[in-house]
Structure formats: C-alpha cells, structure tokens
Amino acid sequence: MNRSLLYPRATTTRRLIGLDGMWRFSFDPESKGVEAGWALDLPSSVSMPVPASFCDLFTDKASREYCGDFWYETSFFVPAEWSGWDIVLRFGSVTHRARIFVNGVEVAQHEGGFLPFDATVTNIVRYNQFNKLSVLANNELSETMLPAGTTRTLADGRKIAAPYFDFYNYAGIHRPVWLMALPKERVLDYSTRYRLTETGAEIDYTVSTNGPHPVTVELYDGTTRVAESSGTTGTLVVKNAKLWNIHAAYLYDLVIRIHEGSAVVDEYLDRIGIRTFEIRHGRFLLNGSPVYLRGFGRHEDADIRGRGLDLPTVKRDFELMKWIGANCFRTSHYPYAEEIYQMADEEGFLIIDEVPAVGFLQSTANFLAANQGNGRQQGFFEKETTPALLKNHKAALTDMIDRDKNHPSVIAWSLLNEPQCTSAGTEEYFKPLFELARRLDPQKRPRTYTVLMTSLPDTSKGQRFADFVSLNRYYGWYVLGGAGLADAEAAFHHEMDGWAKVLHGRPLIFTEYGTDNLSGAHKLPSVMWSAEYQNEYLEMTHAVFDHYDFVQGELVWNFADFQTTEGILRVDGNKKASLPASASPRMRRTSSGSGGQRCRSISRSEKMIPKTAAPCRFAPAGRCLFDMLFT
Ligand code: BDP
Question: Which atom number of ligand 1 is nearest to the Cα of residue 165?
C-alpha cells in the first residue's frame, strides 16, 4: 500500500540513519537458522562489512564459492522522538533473495538481487533502545529468476552456483541500508516529462501520496525558485531553462510538499535535469540534436568488495570514462546502485538501463552450467518454467522503471541481454514486456534488447519489438578469429547488409564487441590475446561500423576486467579490458556523427595472469568453440 522506491532523503519531515558498517555474518548450509532462532541470536558469526559481497573476503575456496542460505546481523537504535512516525528499513539491494527480521519477527521478504526494497517496522521496534536486525539471504540460482542459472550439488553435499551468465555470482548485502523515520502521510512517488518551448521548458509532473492533503511542487535553481505549481498533477513552466546535456549536466532541485493548513506534513527533495531524448529519422536526439553513443558495457565489479557499492571506485570509473571521452554506458547486466545514476546525472552521462534478464539461452546454459557443450539450439521460452520467469521479469522491470524513471541520465531501457530469440515462444514472451515498459515510463524512452551473434536479421523474432536494435558482435574473436580476420570482416558486412533491410528507419548500436587480452602480451605478427591482435580487431570492427550510416552507437566490451565463474574460456575472469587507452581519440568525439578514431578499453588494474591457450584450441579440429556453444 505504501510501496515507494524513492531514494532515501533527509528533509524537514524525514529522518535517516545509515546502518552501513561492520555487521555479524554466518553461513547456514543446512537452512536451520530460522528454526534454531538465529533471528534473535546469530551463533558462531564472523564480522562482515556492509555493503560488500562476502565472496572475495575469505581466503578459503569453500567460503568464496558458498551457495545457499547466509545470515547478517546488526542492531540499531530508534530515538524516542521518532514515535508517531513510520519507521522503515530500506535495503538498496540484497543478492539474490532476503528475509528480514527485527527483534526476531519477520518483517519482509524480497526476491531479486539488484533492486531496492523496504520493510515497515513501526509496530515492532522498541523506542529509545537497541533493536536487532537480521537478514537471512540466499544466493542460489534457478531458471525462473533474473539472472538465470541453476544450482548443483557436489558429491560432498555442498551446493554450488552454476550461472548461465558470464559474470561472477557475487552475493551479499551489496548496497546501503537505511533506517528511516517517515511521516504517516507522505509522498510515495513522482515522475516528470519534459517539453522544450520557445521560451524555455515545461515539466509535466505527477505526484502520488498516501493521503488526502494538497500537494505543491517547486523547482529551484540554486536558491532561486524558478517555477511552482500545485496539485498531484500539473506543469512547471521554466523560463530560460538550462538544459541537461552530455558532459554539461545542469540539475535543478525539485521540492514536493504535502500541506495540512499551514503545516508541512511531508517534504521530499530530488535533483532533476531538463532534457528530451527521442529517436527521429534513424538518429538519437538529445534536446533535438543528434548524438552518437560512445562508451562501454560495464559491470559492478571491483577487487575485494565484489559487487558491493564502493564510492571511491564509482568516482574513479567516472573520471576514467570522462578522460577517454565516453558519453554513454549500459548497466550490463542488471540495474546498478542508485548512487551511480546520481553521479551520471551530475557528470552528464547517458545510461542504457538493463534489467537482470540474462542467461535466457539454453545452449549457453548447457555449456556454462555443466561445462559441456552439446551443440543443441533449444528454446528458453517454451518451458514449464517460462510463466514463472515472465512474472519475475515483469516484477523486476516494474521496479527498475519505478526506481530510475526520473534520472536525466537514463535514456533507454534494455529488456534482455542475449536471450534466445529465434524460437516459437519468443514473441509471446517479448510482447508483454515491451508493452509494460512503454506503459510504465512516463517519458516513453526507447526500448531495446541485445541481440546474440547467432540471432540474425532474418531469424531474430524479437527485434521487431525494439525501438532501436542493439547488437553484441564478436566477429574476429568468437568466430573467424586469428588469421581468419578478413573472412570475419566479410561475414560481418554480410550480416550488416541484412540488418539494413529490416531496420525500417530505426538506429542500430553495438552494445558489445571486443577481444580478451593477456596483459602485457605483444606479438608481431599478431596472435589472438595480444595487444596487436586487439588493435587489428578494433580497426576492422570500426571500419565496418563506419560503413553504415544507421550505426549510431558503439559501446565496447568491457570498461574494466571483471570476475566470472572459473572455466576454460576465462583466465581469472573476463579480460576484455586489458589495454590502456593512451591512443583513443576516437571516443573523444562526443557529439554527433560517426567516424574518426575509436577507443580501446581501460585497465583499472594490471594483473599478472598465466599463459593459456587460445579458446579455439579446445574445440574439435576445424570447429570454433563459439560454434559448439551457440549453434
Ligand atoms: C556476451 C555477453 C557478456 C559476455 C561477453 C563475452 O553478453 O555477458 O561477458 O559476451 O563473451 O555474450 O565477453
């Protein structure tokens, strides 16, 4: 009833206490904690930082790879003067599912490891005292969840995560935890949409509250009020509006109040940017001007803290992206921490926001989960599990759009990454998702999904739903790599000529392309994994991009190296970002048009990695591993 995904803010009517810090932690492999009363007292616990993934903090492999139930515990003090308010606990994310207990009483359950949720604990907490907060989390994977995978049991009875996706299954309390005191009658949500006019801009807004009292909305430029309106829907007229733009963000302060007579019942503050984003005549238009998307696919992944929010890393990443001249990134393959979108709002970056719909491909599932390719292409959307998956997918999409719809940085929604999309069930699965995104988003941002290499213009049944087409392509890496690069270029052109026929005026971007690198490996003539080979690959790939006017963006894979499940395809993780960006003027062309030099990826840290064979060596004679996996 009081569902709200608004970012926690302290205002004249709202109070906040951050609960991040060192908590207590314990594994619960037999899932006996609830019955054994662990919600009141966690036995044999160790200390554990929040936010962080627990995985890389241990030195034994069983703990890092732990899969199953695990507990966190802390205590919090509720000031006596908070009585009469609603007391709410707010979790930025717990991966992948959580049950929340306060003083031993269960107050919330949540499924989905990348989006926020809260628990109202008004009737449970003891005032002027410490209260116990316990979180029972679980990181098992299944085929009905986002992201998809499975959970295997080893001979010794231990469970192990078998992701159908190419990133490590980091788990823990990954984002900040807040204790909030909120007024009983309050703002639950708001949304905006923008119109540029001859004299400035108009902002249509809606506000939802849980009470009957009147609402006012004001817009401030610093300390100056520049527009005001009243009512739960209305329009703010901003004369001489300063627009939000790439690398030139301008943010206004929005102040929403609920009034009862002369008293302010609730006040919520947020920062918004005035901008429009649309597709017209095959171009992306930001404030009416064409923009070519340049940047990265990324991950939330850093040494030690895993997927836990780490503000110094966030800052460093934005500095690197600014330095190289990027203007855009995709939140592959899940919605990131809210603080990252706030930073993009402030720095003027464009975001393609992706729901955690990854691993929806049976042939990858076969290979990644069981380390055995069987070469079969099967459907993923024709299973008994499909209805449950679609339900969870819609829930995650709803929460993502609710949470992120007011960020000026967010320009598009990515509804799936590399799903199987050539079999009969594709359309039935895609249609309701694309419709839902359109209905939920007041700004009607363009929708897309990333298309896997084996889904071609004439076989992809999903592409017709997309407002722009996003391709993940690795010609010259997973297919026709090494000495076959000339053939890779020809095959790439052949495919692109096919896309030209089905776009019907829509733009196309590359959401992934790249090669893995053995850091420090140089060889002339080149071999795969060397810096020289990456250069040749990028030159070839960029030449193909430049040949087609409908290509309107390029997001190289990946911004930084990231951890994956161990296996024969990866050398201590995915290493598609192991070259420095010293010669990367191409990405500095941040405005319109295509052409010029393209970038290389950035190395956050140089690591010593052992020599390994190139991937194709593992395949039967004459057959690339990619063919085994995906065909
Ligand atoms: C694509 C996936 C991405 C992988 C990437 C790769 O979307 O998650 O990390 O390929 O192979 O298939 O590097």
Answer: 8
Question: Does the C-beta of 110 come closer than 6 Å to ligand 1?
Answer: no
Alpha-carbon span 453 to 589, nearest angstrom: 28
What length is written for the chain?
Answer: 631
418 lines ligand 1 (CB under 6 A): yes
Of 177, 174, 421, give the one whose Cα is nearest residue 300.
174
SS3 217: strand
pLDDT at 623: 28
SS3 content of the chain, % helix, strand, coil (to 5): 20, 35, 45
Instruction: For a ligand 1 pocket test, name from 418, 452, 555 the mutation site with the most ligand atoms within 8 angstroms of its C-beta.
Output: 418
d(CA 596, CA 321): 18
* Entry pTM: 0.92
Q: Which of ligand 1's atoms lies nearest the C-alpha of 418?
A: 7
Candidates 71, 72, 92, 68; CA nearest to 141 is 68
How far is 260 from 264, CA to CA, in rounded Å? 6
Q: Which atom of ligand 1 is nearest to the CA of 569?
A: 11
CA of 332 to the centre of ligand 1 (A): 10
For ligand 1, the distance from its centroid to the CA atom of residue 319, given in whole angstroms, is 25
Helix (H) or strand (E) holding 401: helix 386-404
Q: Specify the amino acid at residue 56.
A: D
With a cut of 90, say whether residue 230 has pLDDT above it.
yes
Q: Which of 65, 140, 338, 512 is catalytic?
A: 512
Catalytic residue check, 512: yes
Residue 418 bears catalytic tag: yes
* Over residues 242-255, mean pLDDT: 98
Which token pair is 606? 């140089």
Between CA 250 and CA 7 the distance in angstroms is 20
pLDDT band at 379 (very low <50, low <70, confident <90, very high): confident
For a mutational test of ligand 1's pocket, the pick from 472, 516, 528, 568, i.e. the residue with the most ligand atoms closer than 8 A to its C-beta, is 472
Supply the residue whose CA is at minimum distance from atom 9 of ligand 1.
166
Token duo for residue 98: 């959580």
Q: Is the dihedral of CA 266, 201, 325, 489 positive or negative?
A: positive
* Nearest one of 428, 436, 430, 425 to 451, comparing CA atoms: 430
Ligand 1 centroid from CA 452, angstroms: 9
- State the sign of the Cα–Cα–Cα–Cα dihedral 187, 190, 196, 202: negative
58-106: per-residue pLDDT in tens?
999 999 999 999 999 999 999 999 999 999 999 999 999 999 999 999 9
The string of pLDDT tens digits covering residues 132-157 is 999 999 999 999 999 999 999 999 99
The H or E element spanning position 511 is strand 508-512
